[in-house]
Design brief:
Elements (H helix, E strand, L loop, with lengths): L10 H25 L3 H33 L5
């Protein structure tokens, strides 16, 4: 069985979707924090948003790398 060729043509769009989803999740968590009085819930949501922010940093670097690779026709 032959493996499928590496198709990176839509990686930028997929990464951008992940970024958009992560930002929406962060905003939803912020809304939830504003509506809850439970300190444990607030702390958990805050920690989760901190991890999401770190993930966004990585995604932004990755999207830049993919966009650069696309501009260079995926040549090394």
């Amino acid at each position: 069985m032959k493996p499928n060729p590496d198709d990176r043509s839509d990686n930028v769009e997929k990464i951008q979707e992940n970024i958009d989803d992560t930002i929406r999740n962060m905003e939803a968590a912020e809304d939830m924090m504003a509506r809850t009085d439970n300190p444990q819930t607030k702390a958990e949501l805050k920690a989760k948003n901190n991890r999401r922010e770190e993930a966004l940093d990585g995604l932004r670097k990755e999207i830049k790398d993919e966009a650069d690779a696309r501009e260079n026709n995926y040549q090394d």
